[in-house]
Design brief:
It is a single chain. With 303 residues, this protein is an alpha/beta fold. It is built from 15 helices and five strands. Strand 4, helix 13 and strand 5 form a beta-alpha-beta unit.
């Protein structure tokens, strides 16, 4: 069964919190829809009481933009969205949140608080929206794969390397490629028993898209880990995992976006290790012992 991103699968309201879904889709919305979405995030209870024309006027846009935004969020109509907003407002939040983009006027204490708030929010939103069934199918593929190729670039390349090292520590045939030539040539040699994992925050990184497309053409199963559900990478892949977490002007390659990817790959890794417990524990023991010889023993303090 494919988890390929589609208009129905991505936009259908599911069990995750509405706030998490809006934050996840925010980067892929057009400017008018972003203004509408931010109003929904800022005041869910108030938004649930507004008519479509009132919301459009408040966002400085048209009613047709409200309709498009409603559908982009996965609702069949504005009435359904209002009900979801009311239910979300009734549930309330789990505690105080310090979020918002960093400005030049912020103090260092404000910067620390905002970054911590964004990163905690990214973890919470990612946990809420990850598709566990899709993850289970990806774990099945990885366990049975002859070869696992992982592709990433820039900050997402660091995440790709982390997944590679984790899989390597438990004895899985993992390889990571962060350059276009290595990515394309390695992907061309894959086959139906292999799996290609592309990691890209935007889902529009040409190096990663090219390698995943080449892998698909070679017959390999493909996986996208991206924060943008309507991106080229998400559309191309057979299976999609959607971390949350945004990047802003002050934070390209931000920890909030990267930590959501890291949580996603940690879940994959632990799921694989759990399913292959004896094999993985033996490999972890052997690799740990190999590293011990490179560690400096602790100094003895004189009494």
């Amino acid at each position: 069964m494919s988890d390929k991103t589609s208009e129905n699968s991505v936009n259908t309201p599911g069990g995750e919190r509405l706030e998490s879904r809006i934050r996840a889709l925010l980067p892929s919305l057009n400017p008018s829809s972003v203004r509408i979405a931010k109003i929904l995030l800022d005041d869910q209870a108030g938004a649930s009481r507004r008519t479509m024309s009132e919301l459009a006027e408040m966002a400085g846009t048209s009613e047709s933009s409200v309709v498009r935004t409603t559908r982009a969020l996965g609702f069949r109509g504005y009435a359904e969205l209002r009900l979801a907003l009311a239910a979300e407002a009734a549930r309330g939040t789990t505690g105080p949140q310090v979020t918002g983009d960093i400005t030049p006027a912020d103090s260092l204490a404000d910067v620390v608080a905002k970054l911590a708030g964004e990163e905690m929010q990214a973890i919470s939103d990612t946990a809420a929206q990850l598709d566990v069934d899709a993850m289970r199918r990806i774990i099945d593929l990885m366990i049975g794969a002859r070869r696992i190729n992982i592709y990433g670039s820039g900050a997402s390349g660091l995440v790709a390397m982390d997944l590679h090292h984790k899989l390597e520590r438990i004895g899985f045939p993992s390889h990571v490629y962060c350059d276009v030539h290595g990515g394309l040539t390695s992907a061309a040699l894959l086959g139906t028993e292999d799996i290609a994992v592309g990691i890209s925050f935007s889902g529009e990184t040409n190096d990663v898209i090219g390698a995943v497309r080449q892998a698909a053409d070679a017959g390999a199963a493909t996986v996208a880990i991206t924060n943008h559900p309507r991106s080229q990478l998400a559309t191309l892949a057979d299976h999609v995992l959607l971390p949350a977490g945004a990047e802003t002007a002050f934070r390209p390659g931000a920890l909030a976006s990267r930590i959501s990817q890291l949580l996603t790959i940690d879940c994959l890794f632990v799921g694989i290790a759990q399913r292959t417990y004896d094999r993985s524990m033996r490999a972890l023991s052997l690799t740990h012992a190999a590293l011990q010889s490179q560690r400096t023993p602790p100094r003895k303090h004189r009494t």
